[in-house]
Amino acid sequence: MTASVGATAPPLPVRGGPLAGARRGTATVFAAQGAAVAAVSTTVPAVESRLGLSSLAMTALTIALTLAAGTGSFAGLAAVRRSGPVTVMRAAVLTAAAALLAVAWAPGRVAASAAYVLFGLALGAIDVSVNTRAATVERHYGRSILSSFYAAWSAAGVAAALLTAGVSRLGWPVQYVLTAHAAVVAVLALTVRTQGLVAPHGEGPAPAQEILGRRVWARLVPFGVVLLVAYVVDSTVSAWSTVYLHQTLAASLAAAPLAYAAYQAGTVTGRAGADHLVRRVGPVAVVRAAALLAAAALGALAAARSWPYAVVAAGCAGLGVAALTPLCVAAAGRLRPGAPETVLARLNVFNYVGVLVGAGASGGLGATGHFRIAYAIPAALALALVTTARFFRTDGARASAGVDTMPAGTGSPIPSARTGGPCRP
Question: What is the end-to-end Cα distance of the chain in Å, rounded?
């Protein structure tokens, strides 16, 4: 299932071969997931209005979605072991498209709640399956391509947010807006093709037999903490920036999604140059700078006087947080190179806790009219991440030597960039 370029494995052609096709397919699924998440996040005010939901009720739905995503991650792990990552990620993206349609045309609150839960389950399955595929593809490349997958996710989020803003300006009801998003996500899923990547001889124990020991868990926790805070920031901006602009800063339904679009545009920009920057100055410096920028931007977002200022601040927040997730997930994925999906399923616990805390806490504060406080708190958390940068030094030093540790029995190390490893979403 997962594979690496070992000493006995012939190199796969990068251009025009199955490896290039696998990379394109993986990036497509990242894009589909980014578009689907943006579709849900940028239509929150419109769905609230159509169904007559309060902010607290919408917060409860967001929490239910996040819990479902955690369940879907572990269910996806079992499915990946049984059917392989490509089959699972294609089916999960199609399920996400169906869930968007169900949200769009739900006749009432109960049906809408079920649709959001279905979307969460699909999202979790996409996470673990596409991360597994990304890890395999990157290990075959033998160098870091991590940020390109993240950039595809963010770029699709920008496009989806602009789609929401555009069709809302035309006066389309939310049913048609979400239907348009569902169609885009479904088309992306249908373009994914299976590209066989041959596992090298001596890859190590099968994923189903992989057991994480206490030492691995201890090494995983610092990266999990970084991931948790990164997703507190991400979910606070992604889930509620549209509502913040609409309710607190008096932006129209057409202008409110622009903060989400700016945030994702910032992440695209940051991730486009993240690999190069890490190679030049190292992961420790990048984590510190990213945390400081994210903290400053979130503080500006909390203090914004009008929605245009908030849009700019959201873009800067995206630029700051862009490198945090790729770096910590890459480092965690290297703990078990032969079975990254096992580590990733565990690491996703931190991911979803971060989303749960960020979306739940900010939604609760927003419901009581304190959205500015909801952005000030993640600013403090992002600032605290400066102290965690030192945990990236060991992985960076290993990668700067050009090798990554292989599982027992593989034969020899493989070339690796500093951020080599699997990636999210």
Answer: 20
Taking a C-beta distance cutoff of 8 angstroms, is the pair 323, 290 a contact?
A: yes
CA pair distance 213, 208, nearest whole angstrom: 15
Q: What number of other Cβ atoms are within 10 A of residue 377's Cβ?
A: 18
Q: Write the CA distances from 293 to 203, 297, 298, 318, 321, integer angstroms.
A: 40, 6, 9, 9, 8
For residue 342, give the nearest of 1, 32, 4 by alpha carbon: 1
Are 92 and 76 contacting, i.e. CB atoms less than 8 angstroms apart?
yes
Annotated domain spans of the chain: 18-194+220-400
- 3-state SS assignment for residue 233: helix
Question: What is the per-residue pLDDT across 251-308, written as a single tens digit (0 to 9) for each?
Answer: 988 898 899 889 989 988 988 887 788 878 888 889 999 999 999 999 999 999 999 9
User: pLDDT tens digit string along 136-173?
Assistant: 787 778 776 777 887 898 889 889 989 998 988 888 99
Question: Residue 234's CB: how many other CB atoms inside 10 A?
Answer: 27
Q: What is the pLDDT of residue 139?
A: 77
CA distance linking residue 420 with residue 401, whole number of Å = 13
- The pLDDT of residue 212: 56
C-beta of residue 56 within 8 angstroms of C-beta of residue 367: yes
> CATH number of the domain at 18-194+220-400, please?
1.20.1250.20
Three-class SS state of 25: helix
Amino acid sitting at position 160: A
**With a cut of 70, which residues of the chain have pLDDT below it?**
1-16, 144, 195-214, 333, 337-341, 394-425
227 CB contacts (<8 Å, ≥6 apart)? 324, 325, 328, 329, 332, 347, 350, 351, 354
Contact 398, 405 (CB under 8 A): yes
Within 10 A of 380 (CB to CB), how many other CB atoms are there? 11
How long, in residues, is the chain?
425
Q: What φ, ψ does residue 404 adopt, rounded to 5°?
A: -135, 140
